[in-house]
Amino acid sequence: MGTATRMTSIRLDTRLADKAAKTLGVKSRTEAVHIALREIVALNEFKKMMTSLGGKLRFEGHGK
User: Fold this and answer.
1) How far apart are CA 38 and CA 36, in angstroms?
2) pLDDT, average across residues 25-54
3) Residue 12 in contact with residue 29, Cβ under 8 Å?
4) pTM for this structure?
5) What are phi and psi of 51, to 5 degrees?
6) What is the pLDDT of residue 40?
7) pLDDT recorded at residue 2
């Protein structure tokens, strides 16, 4: 999937954005926001997958 970037303006908690950037080891708030957006989308997709597989997964060594 290609990336579509566009200049936009949002109200942002700058302290939180700076803390996120530091935590993630990136230099800009923009990078931190992009990572956070990708992560929340991935988390949602993972949750949907896990819900659809409810009770169907088998783990090696589990229950022994």
Assistant:
1) 5
2) 95
3) yes
4) 0.74
5) -65, -40
6) 97
7) 67
Six-digit token string for 48:
């949907």
- Determine the residue type at 51: T
Domain boundaries defined on the chain: 14-52
What is the token pair recorded at 1? 């999937």
Distance CA 11, CA 16 (A): 12
**8 Å CB contact between 36 and 20:** yes
**Interval 9-33: pLDDT, tens:** 999 999 999 999 999 999 999 999 9
- Write the CB contacts of 18 (distance below 8 Å, at least 6 apart in sequence): 29
Residue 5 phi, psi dihedral angles, 5° rounding: -110, 150
**Amino acid of residue 34:** H
Distance in angstroms (rounded) separating the CA atoms of residues 19 and 60: 39
